[in-house]
UniProtKB/TrEMBL annotation:
The entry's keywords: Acyltransferase, Transferase
SUPFAM superfamilies reported in the protein's UniProt record: alpha/beta-Hydrolases
Name of a matching Pfam family: Abhydrolase_6
GO molecular function, one term: dihydrolipoyllysine-residue acetyltransferase activity
Presence of the UniProt keyword Acyltransferase in the record: yes
GO cellular component: membrane
EC number: 2.3.1.12
Domain of life assignment: Bacteria
Record-given protein name: Dihydrolipoyllysine-residue acetyltransferase component of acetoin cleaving system
Length: 265
């Protein structure tokens, strides 16, 4: 991106969790989904902290990057992430992305394969045309706690007990000036009418890096069948009774798979 205003940094806002020797392993970069922010990775970063450094970014139009000069689809976010990695002099990273962040991570790897050591994709966007466009559009525009709670329940498995603070936190984020309009603009770039744009899955599989795809059988945002019949080189992990938020629903298993893909014992 070359259109950054002078009052903006040259990298996306991020939280850096580092309690290990940074020279030992490439850091893990965590990219959240649509309508979220880097706080969604807080517990994941804590769990990773004894093994590897991790950085969780706010994608353009989200969190502290709400007023980022350019917002839009996964391709635009991927450019911002790539610029941020370059500015922070991170020559080699392990990318972890959830939902829209999964599509962003995949695009970063396709555009700069030498920088990416592994890909771990949680219910990633772009793996098939089907998407719950009605749910995402409502999620973009809802700002009251009660309505947000009803919507968020659709993101998790049927048995998951939704913490009360999640709905309030999400509703509070919509109260910021411009937040709802920004998400509305982004969701309309993600969704093409009633479907989503797709990634070149064969090109992803051709990357000479380990790739894991993690999905839940009760995902009501992106159907689990998008993980079926992936190229054989891609490791696919399907979890029963899990929805669209595996990092929050089965955090221990997700952390284990991230570390495994990063080659960290």
């Amino acid at each position: 991106m070359t259109d950054l205003r002078p009052d903006f940094p040259n990298h996306l806002p991020f939280h850096d969790q580092n309690t290990v020797d940074p020279g030992e392993n490439a850091p893990v970069i965590l990219l959240h989904g649509f309508g979220g922010d880097r706080q969604t990775w807080q517990n994941t970063q804590t769990a990773l902290s004894s093994k590897v450094r991790s950085l969780a970014f706010d994608l353009p139009g989200h969190g502290q990057a709400l007023d980022w000069p350019r917002i839009g689809n996964a391709g635009i976010a991927a450019k911002a992430v790539a610029q941020s990695l370059e500015h922070l002099a991170l020559a080699k990273v392990h990318l972890v992305g959830h939902s829209m962040g999964g599509a962003v991570a995949a695009l970063v790897a396709l555009n700069d394969p030498e920088r990416v050591a592994s890909l771990t994709l949680l219910a990633p966007g772009g793996f098939g045309p089907e998407i719950n466009h009605r749910l995402l559009r409502r999620y973009a525009t809802t700002s009251d706690v009660e309505g947000m709670e009803v919507l968020l329940e659709q993101f998790f498995g049927w048995e998951f007990r939704l913490p009360k603070f999640l709905a309030k936190t999400a509703a509070d984020s919509r109260a910021r000036p411009g937040a709802t309009a920004t998400l509305e603009a982004i969701v309309e770039e993600i969704i093409d009418g009633t479907v989503q744009k797709t990634l070149p899955r064969d090109e992803l599989a051709a990357l000479k890096i380990p790739i894991k795809v993690i999905w839940g059988t009760q995902d009501r945002v992106l159907p689990t069948r998008q993980a079926h019949k992936l190229p054989g080189i891609v490791a696919t992990h399907i979890f029963e009774r899990v929805g669209h938020m595996p990092h929050l629903e089965i955090p221990k298993e997700v952390t284990r798979l991230i570390l495994q893909n990063a080659g960290v014992n």
